[in-house]
Amino acid sequence: MMALHQQQAVSEPTGGLMPSGPTYHRQVEARQRRGRIWAIIFQAALVSGVIALCALIFNIVNQSFGYVAIVNNIDPAELAVDGTPLNALPKEQLVEILEANVSAGLMRRYAHDVPFAERSREDIHGLILERVVEPQVQATWGLFDSVFARGSVMAEAEERFPGSDVYFRSWLTTSFISNSQSSEPLRAGVRTAILGSLWVVAITILFSFPIGVGAAIYLEEYAHRERPLNRLIQTNINNLAGVPSIIYGMLGLAIFVRVLEAFTSGAFLGVGDQSTANGRTIISAGMTLGLLILPLIIINGQEAIRAVPSSLRQAGFGLGATHWQVIWHHVLPSAMPGILTGTILAISRAIGETAPLVVVGASTFIALDPSGPFSKFTVLPIQIYQWTSRPQDEFRNLAAAAILVLLILLLTLNASAVLLRNQFNRRQANA
Amino acid sequence: MDRLNRELESTLCLLLPDGEQGVNMTQSAPVAHAAVSAESMQGPVAGVDGQADADAVGGGPKHDLRRKPRVGESFIQGFLFLCGAVSVLTTVGIVIVLGRETLLFFASEEVNLLKFFGGTEWQPAIGRFGIWPLVTATLMASLIAMAVALPVGLCIAIYLSEYAAQRTRSILKPILEVLAGVPTVVYGYFALTFMTPLLRGMLGRDLVEIYNTASAGIVIGILVIPLVSSMSDDALTAVPNSLRQASYGLGATRLETALRIVLPAALSGVAAAFIVAISRAIGETMIVAIAAGAGPNFTFSPFRAAETMTGHIVRISGGDLSYDSIDYNSIFAIGLLLFLLTLSLNILSQWIVRRFREEYE
Amino acid sequence: MTIAIDRPSQLKTETNQPSPNGTGRFAIEAGAMHVYYGDFCAVRDVQLGVPANKITAIIGPSGCGKSTVLRCFNRMNDLIPGARIEGEVLFQGQNIYDDNVDPVEVRRRIGMVFQKPNPFPKTIYENVAWGTRINGFRGDMDEMVERALRSAALWDEVKDKLQQSALGLSGGQQQRLCIARAIAVEPEIILMDEPASALDPIATLRIEDLMKELSEKYTIIVVTHNMQQAARISDFTAFFSVDDRRTGVLIEFDDTEKIFTNPSQKSTEDYITGRFG
Ligand SMILES: Nc1ncnc2c1ncn2[C@@H]1O[C@H](COP(=O)(O)OP(=O)(O)OP(=O)(O)O)[C@@H](O)[C@H]1O
Ligand SMILES: [Mg+2]
Q1: Most-buried pick from A37, A204, A241, B174 (CB within 10 A)?
Q2: What is the number of structural domains in chain A?
Q3: Is some CB atom of chain B closer than 8 A to the CB atom of C163?
Q4: pTM of the model as a whole
């Protein structure tokens, strides 16, 4: 605009005060140039967003795979008997090796836990690796260095950790998923955390889906908009959606863990873990997350219900159906795909939540699988948080592998939500 | 869904008075069985009634239209109302819980409001309860986040709504959604293992500490970019095309149309997006808990370690915490402050949207 | 145009309301009925007795409250927030707006067919069966569905695809399905709001024939914009218009033949001959 005014002053007033001729062309060119520059800036912003996403993914994948340098307490090759390598020995010989290398007290404890006769060969092999070979991670490298700077990785390992065993390791393996938590990074896994996540999310769904859909039905079908109470409920839900998740954690801590301890610890049923009978259990965590995603489910559900054409309701009423019959037989089935899509998205939010569960009191270390809603718990994001907080590199690698598991889980969920939505849209289009 | 319906239908029939009154109706001609059905629908007593009155009202069968108690129906409606009320109870619960513990906190002789809002040291172990170190760290991280997210988010939104072709949009929007769906603990990991080394590599290891608010802030910024861009994009695309055409018709370029016509018209929506983003950044927890530092520190340098309000709550509650200790109460006081801060921001954004909503047509 | 305010209330006696079948019986009767949407009075002081087992057409310019009046006859207006009705609507001697009357019962006795076909997104069979099932029908459902579809002259077209989605039918078929669905619950009265306006001429004719047939067993009240249609199918015609405050009023109600050949009101004649609306 500034440019325009200046141009007006100098241009020849041929037929008016607006610039024309070559002056005007120059001015337009300048404006177009500015336009192109800004277009590039806008695109650059977008590209930077994409780069951020790529960096995030690169970083995690990079940390999940790569070389590790390991020093063994006893070289497994030394444990070979008559040339048969350790991993090919029969069970009896493995037990002998174990007996020869660990203290009698430890042997008695193992025998006490599970008698050796009942243990499998793999189990004993694992015990030998853990107690006798005792591999220690000295250093780890990322995937990028391992692939493109292999030489320098090897040289560095040779120099700093002479005699160490350097090999390429994928931190994300099937045993990573099936192993339980362990303080040994090489043997640690996420089974406990995955099971914990599933339990917690199951409680969350059981708690928030019926209540959320019920509230959505109430607000869309029964509530008179003008009534102050209903307006209060609606405004309240919109505001709850913006409350930081950690606040929900504090609510859960004060209400579910503390006030309702008798219930959430399972004491009222006499089932809880007596040694640690407090309310820091799966059910507390699930209900906390349930409250957290309730507003999301309600808001989504309301939108889905609002999208059901009113002609459908009229048709039902016109036949002498009661309000609930119309809702149950016509409104809900039509709205269900939308409701489910919203619910899946809300659930994937719940699966990724960490802060409220830290506050509610996730356990820092449990190797025991959760056995029910009154067990202590840990979940995948908590596990990631704890591993990330450890200073050692190898735990960062574990965290990266756990993040991959979490992201794959979430991606599958989100993809199913998108599929559901698309299928529903197609069906609508055909109808 | 259909199957589910059918399964539950039987249950429903038990709940609803209508379902119980079924009497086998086999008839030949519609008119004839209008009478039959009237009887059977109402049960024997009403049926006799109907017959008796029929002549009085001109020959036809008379139906009993009186309201019958629909216990199931009222029960369901009551239940649904309770579902809606749960959300109000949640808010009430939050206010009571935070309020109660905060009162207990201020009731102890070690603290008072003056010390709380006047002190610059937060050391519960030695009875120092000045909130400022936590607040400045929170504000610093949020400011850095906004410096990243607002320009980038707005530019993305303008690009998406004013420049991108439909096809490009349909590819880019899901990418942004993916970005928004990544759990915050993953962003925290990203901040600590990627952003911090990057900053230290660029600015020097002496300047940038291992834990610092800058990298946490930048990553929070990345986290809220999708929020800013999708909310702003919604506001921009809601501006009617007639406005754009009018602008082009006057000889304006695409940029001039976007910045001087469309953006001002969508300003309230964009402002609301910004405010929601700020509130989100203030409440963000895991990124700062992982990357910003684990100890209150009254500093204005973004490259030093400092603990935010949320980070402090997480660290304290993650340890062994005994109820009704001053530590326990103190995190609720911080929580209340956080709640009030974010709540007022959210209310402000809703108010802006409502107050300055452009009414097209 | 001006309309005497007290006109409609005198109408009933003045126009010598027809007494069908010589029984003097009205299927439904509105007395001093006013309808409001919020503060706006949409229709005022309607006095109208609808003869049983006949087709009654409601005509009038757009916005004069035809749909509003029709909806009052089975309390569909209850579903519109802010809608309010004064006066009474007598059905078999009972005021359906009495406090102790259940709108659900009313709608089961007084069915409705809407302007746009609105089948449920279910199978054809289920569309017909649903209404009867929720109303407690426990008889031979297959037989009942067939009878309803035959009554609606749809059976031959759909008998091979009863389990297919009703949304796959043509507009005209869908509308006849909606009629079948309505008569399946065996109402006394069927209200139809421009049932053929979304259909082509052939489908319209089929609906009209169907209405003729149905009128032997049911009382039909139909809103239409199509003057020829009203003349063709209806036995009685009610003409509504608006006053200067855009409130609907009943101008004239009489034998269709009389309305179309020798209306007693000037405005009726204007409307029918196309000089109005
Ligand atoms: N749901 C509603 N809320 C408020 N006013 C309404 C509503 N429905 C109808 N009206 C008003 O009531 C008056 C009568 O409307 P109605 O739909 O009954 O007219 P109509 O005669 O059926 O018109 P048409 O021939 O166009 O269908 C109109 O002025 C209309 O604006
Ligand atoms: Mg109408």
Answers
A1: A204
A2: 2
A3: no
A4: 0.82
